[in-house]
Amino acid sequence: EIVLTQSPATLSLSPGERATLSCRASQTVTNHLAWYQQKPGQVPRLLIYNAFNRATGIPVRFSGSGSGTDFTLTISSLEPEDFAVYYCQQRINRGTFGPGTKVEIK
Amino acid sequence: DVQLVESGGGLVQPGRSLRLSCTGSGFTFGDYPMGWVRQAPGKGLEWVGFIRRTSYGATPESAASLEDRFTVSRDDSKATVYLQMNSLKTEDTGLYYCIREIQGQGAGEYWGQGTLVTVSS
After folding, report:
1. Chain A contact set for B47 (CB, 8 A)
2. Does B45 touch chain A (CB under 8 A)?
3. Quick check: B47 and A94 CB within 8 A?
4. Which of A91, A93, A96, A101 to mutate to test binding with chain B, by most B CBs within 10 Å of its CB?
5. How does pLDDT run across A14-71, given as a tens digit for each residue?
6. Strands B94-101 and B115-119
7. For B46-80, what is each residue's pLDDT tens digit?
8. How many C-beta neighbours within 10 Å does residue B19 have?
9. Residue B35's closest chain A neighbor by CA?
10. Buried b (16+ CB within 10 A) or exposed e, A23-45
């Protein structure tokens, strides 16, 4: 099973700051990596697929990069609605999710 | 609009079986791979399984830790995907989401609201 590790576990930032979230796979997933956002009590929302493609309706401040085993989700300037938990997911070999990174207000 | 509606959740005793259903609308159901993701109370997301679209054989895959108990199937004539769960354990308790995947990528583009499964005696 491919294991995904996300860092940091918690990111404390202020609105307007840049957020950089990391996801590392235990073996290559090529570009079959997606990112999701989940707010309390809400259904997860797809942000990025294929490592760098923004899903429909996702603002341009969200961007994804990486390939192979190391991936990054960047939020260029945090909006108040961006404080949430972010998960990465691989689907090249069955599927697994990372444990999540919580982006909280500093 | 794409809609996914799950049903079939509820309270079930350990060791029993349960079948979840998810009906899709607003899209050509048979053209898409469909999957299931679950979330235990207060925990993260866990991939459960998926089934390929019919033109790719409608073959299912489940998480390795679940494949001996959980099976995904589909009935395109009813625009419905199922999750058959056998020998349920207390740790299977959680919210089960149905997802429509992006073809060839596996990412869950659309999600249902989820159905709650509680395994308890």
Report:
1. 89, 91, 94-97
2. yes
3. yes
4. A91
5. 999 999 999 999 999 999 999 999 999 999 999 999 999 999 999 999 999 999 999 9
6. antiparallel
7. 999 999 999 999 999 999 999 999 999 999 999 99
8. 13
9. A95
10. bbbeeebebbbbbbbbeeeebbb
